[in-house]
Structure prediction request, 672 residues.
Amino acid sequence: MTIAAHITQLRSEIEEHLYRYHVLDAPTISDAAYDQLFRELEQLEAAHPEYVTPDSPTQRVGAKPLAGFGEIRHRVAMLSLENAFSESEVQAFWQRINDRFPHIKSIDLTCEPKLDGVAVNLHYEKGKLIYAATRGDGETGEDITSNVRTIRMIPLHLRGTHLPEVLDVRGEIYISKKGFAALNEAAVRRDEKIFANPRNAAAGSLRQLDPKITAKRPLEFFAHGVGEMSGVDLPTAHFDCMRMLQAWGLRVSPDLIKVADSEGCLNYYQAMQARRAHLPYEIDGVVYKVNDYKIQQNLGFVARAPRWAIAHKFPAEEVMTTLLAVEFQVGRTGALTPVARLAPVAVAGVMVSNATLHNMDEIKRKDIHIGDKVMVRRAGDVIPEVVGVAVRHAHHALEIHLPTMCPVCHSHVEHIAGEAVARCSGGLFCPAQRVQAILHFASRRAMDIVGLGDKLVEQLVAEGMISTIADLYHLTLSQLAQLERMAEKSADNLLAALDKSRTTTLARFLFSLGIREVGEATARQLAEHFRSLDALMIADTPALEQVADVGPIVARHIVAFFAEKHNVKVINDLRAAGVHWPALPARVSSGKLIGKTFVLTGTLNTLARDEAKEKLQALGAKVAGSVSAKTDFVVAGSDAGSKLAKAEALGVKVMDEAALLELLQSNCSGAP
Ligand code: 5U1
Prediction:
C-alpha cells in the first residue's frame, strides 16, 4: 500500500470509530485502540507532511489563535421557538394547527428534548464542513468554524456517497452535566472563575479566540433541524430527515419520537420530566414539531417563530436545602433585601448557595426561620429564590430580624408599616447608594450639573475622588484631568457647571437631596411652606402634614432623612462648599396671582420656561400643562401653536413675554 493510501485508510477508520462512538453510542474498539490508530496517523503525517490536509482528523485544532470572530449571514434565517408553560397552551397550539387543516384527518407531530445550549448552524458543501456559525440575531451569527472543528462529535466529512450539494444543519452545542462538573472542578483547582451553568460554559468555550482552549472543553452536539439543503431530495417529514442526518454521521437525539396528537405530546412531556434528572445533559423542556414539511410550510411563521413548533418548558426546578443564615444587601436605592445563605445545592444544573428572600413581609408570610429546610427555586437566568419551608427545624429554628442599622453605612434602617421594603435612611452618605444619589443630585431638574453623566460619576466614585455629593464641589482641574477620556476642556466645563450649580433655589435643593417620595412638586410645596431649610429640618410629622400633598408616609420619610446625622453632615458640607439659594420673601398670602392658573407655551426669550414657572409659583400661581376653560392666562412666547389657538377659541386671556415680565415685576414689588 502506498503511504497516501495508508493515510486515507487510517483517516476513514478513525472517522468510522468517531461515528460509532459519538453518534451511534456503540463503539467497537477500546479507547486505547482508538488512540493507537490516531497516533499512527499522526506519525505518518509527521513523516510525510506533503499529505497533510486540513480535513484530516489530526487537524481539528488550528494552529493560530483568532484575532476576533467574523460574521456569517445565514442563507436561511435561524428561527426561535414560542414557549408553552402549561398543558392548555399545548392544547391551544394543537387546536390552532387543526383549525388550519380541517380536511386533514391526522397530523403527526415529533417530540424531542430541548437542550439548554448554544444554537448553531453547520454548513456542509459536498459533504465537507465549510463553516459553522452561532445563531446571533437569527439573520447573522458569529463565525465559530475554528472552534467547532475541535468538537470530535461534529463530522468534518459527512458519511455516504449520495450527499447534498449544500446542507445547513441546525443544532445545539452543549456541555454535559459531567463535563460541566469536571470543568468547574478544574477551575477551582486553578483558582479560576467557575461557570454559572452548562450553557454559559458552552457559550464561553465557543467564544475562545484560541481553538486550543476550546479543544480542551467537553463540548457536545445534537442536530435538530435543517436550513438550506440542495442536491438530493429532502425527505418529506422532519422525523425522516433526522434519520437521514444520522446516516450522514450527525448526532441526533435518541429521544426523538413521532406522536399522533397533543395527548402523545403531553405523555412525552411527563416521561421526559421524570427522566430529566437522570439525563446526562441539561434540558429545560421538550420541543413539538409538525412532522410533515408541507404542512410546516403552509403554517409558516409569526415574527421569528414558526407556527408549526413549540417548546413546552419544564417548571422551575425546586430543591430542598438548609437555611444557614440571612444577611441583608443594600441596593442602589437603599432597599434592604434579605439574602438566604444556604447549604450549597444543585438547582437545575447550577450550584446555589445564596437566594433571595425578597423582603420581611415574605419571610413572615412564609414563616421562614434560620435552621429550617427550605425549598429553593431557579427559573432560567433569574436569581434563585426561597420558595418556602419544607421542614421546620425541630428545636433551634431562629427568627429572622431586620437589622436596625444599615449593614453598609450604619445609618438607621427605616421600615414603614404597610410598606414591603425596608430602607437605609443614609441616602446621601451610604456607599451602596452613592452613585444613584450623585446622579439624582446632578440631574437637570435637581442641581442641573451639565456634563456629570453616569459613566463619569461611576469613575469618580471608583477612583475614590468623591464619596458624597458634597465632595463634588472640592474636585480640582488636576484631579479631573487624570481621568480617562477627560479632555481639559470638558474638565473646565464641568468645574464651571459645578460652580454655577452652587446658586440654586430651596425647592431645587430639596428635590436634589433624593428624599424618598419627595418629587419636584412636593419639594416646591415644602420650600414654599417652610421658607427655609432650617425650619424644614426641625419639622415633625404633624407640621409636615400641613403641607398639601404630604401625607403620613412622606412625612415619616422626611423626618427619618433629617434625623440621620450622616445626611445632616452632608448638607452642612454642601452649604460650607458654597451651595446657597436666595432667602424666600415672606409668604404670599395675598396678591392677584394667588390661585390663578397659567399655561406657558412657545419659546420665551428672556426667561427659561422653568424659571418663569418657579417665579409664578412663588407668587402663588399654578402652572398647568394644558389649556382648559379653567385656565386664567396663557403666556404665548414666539412660535406658540395649538395651545394659543385653543386659548383664543376658549376666550382665555393671552399675554406675551413682556406682559408676563411686567406682571412678575409688579407683583414682586408688592402691588396687589
Ligand atoms: N430540539 C430542538 N431544539 N430546538 C430549538 N429543536 C429545535 N428547533 C428549534 C429551536 C430553536 O427551532 C426550529 C423549530 C426552527
About this structure: The chain has a mean pLDDT of 90. The pocket of 5U1 is lined by residues 79-81, 112, 114, 119, 224-225, 287, 289, 306, 309 (CB under 6 Å).
